[in-house]
Design a protein that fits this description.
Blueprint (H helix, E strand, L loop, with lengths): L11 H10 L8 E6 L1 H5 L2 H11 L11 H13 L4 E7 L2 E10 L4 H9 L8 E9 L8 H15 L4 E7 L16 H6 L3 E13 L6 E12 L1
Parallel strand pairs: 4-5
Antiparallel strand pairs: 1-2, 2-3, 3-4, 5-7, 6-7
Helix pairs in contact: 1-6, 3-4
Bound molecules: coenzyme A.
């Protein structure tokens, strides 16, 4: 498979330089590829399956369906500036980190962004980072962010945003030893935007109907 970028996504050179210079080596067989457009298409079902598996856990509790996921992920194919950073163990997709121009998600974020004096066209939106449990703690999460930040800069974007679900700490489904990614995000320079909260609806595992969830917006100036 070739990894030649269609536009300005991190190149193989970026991926390899990062692996060599900035991060401890990954275990044998684990590789990262940056995919766009038609190259990305062949992995959409695998990304959908990853999202369903990983977001089923706390704090998302997302009871996802392949049909919805396929439709949702289609927007990555249709946008020339969207990128999938895919992590593989051999040929198997084991992690994914996606980013798209913020204006693509403008509808859900119209209200939160009204409080900011920042045009959406200056922001790259990190849609998700998902990694199977067995591969966590190897530095792939950092590499996902490294490559997202390279992509944002190459598009001339000045900020990166993403959103994180807010659930009460005393929620019955919260594992007693849960350690969230907030400290990781803050260490990388991201912080919640005060008062900027979007709302998304999905069906929680075990529920019969969808319910709305608040998601706080996190932002970093590059
Ligand atoms: C977020 C996620 C992609 C991070 O992947 P990862 O490869 O484990 O991350 P890394 O190994 O690069 O570690 C990143 C930081 O998290 C810390 N960390 C490692 N394991 C952790 C754990 N179980 N819980 C919380 N933080 C952890 C690491 O110590 C590291 O911090 P450091 O730089 O201070 O040492 C992965 O945990 C995941 O898929 N989580 C579930 C989905 C999710 O919440 N995604 C984010 C919102 S879309």
């Amino acid at each position: 498979m070739t990894n030649a970028p269609l536009h300005s996504a991190p190149t193989d050179a970026d991926v390899n330089a990062m692996a060599r210079d900035q991060r401890p080596a990954l275990p044998d067989g684990i590789t990262l590829r940056s995919l766009q457009g038609a190259e990305l298409e062949q992995y959409l079902d695998a990304v959908a399956a990853l999202r369903i598996a990983v977001f089923r856990d706390w704090p998302y509790l997302y009871d996802g369906t392949l049909a919805f996921e396929r439709d949702y992920l289609q927007s990555y194919l249709d946008n020339k500036d969207a990128v999938l950073v895919a992590a593989f163990d051999g040929d198997r997709l084991i992690g994914a980190s996606t980013s798209t121009p913020m204006e693509v998600h403008a509808e859900a974020f119209a209200a939160p962004f009204a409080t900011l004096d920042l045009p959406l066209t200056r922001i790259l939106y990190g849609v998700e980072s998902v990694l199977l449990h067995a591969y966590r703690g190897l530095g792939l999460g950092h590499r996902f962010f490294d490559l997202r930040e390279i992509h944002a800069r190459s598009l001339g974007r000045s900020h990166i945003a993403f959103c994180a679900i807010c659930r009460p700490d005393n929620h019955p489904a919260c594992p007693h030893d849960y350690r969230g990614p907030d400290a990781f995000w803050r260490k990388r320079g991201y912080a919640p935007v005060p008062g900027a909260v979007a709302t998304f609806a999905w069906r929680d595992v075990g529920d019969v109907a969808e319910s709305e969830k608040p998601l706080e917006l996190w932002l970093r100036a590059l």
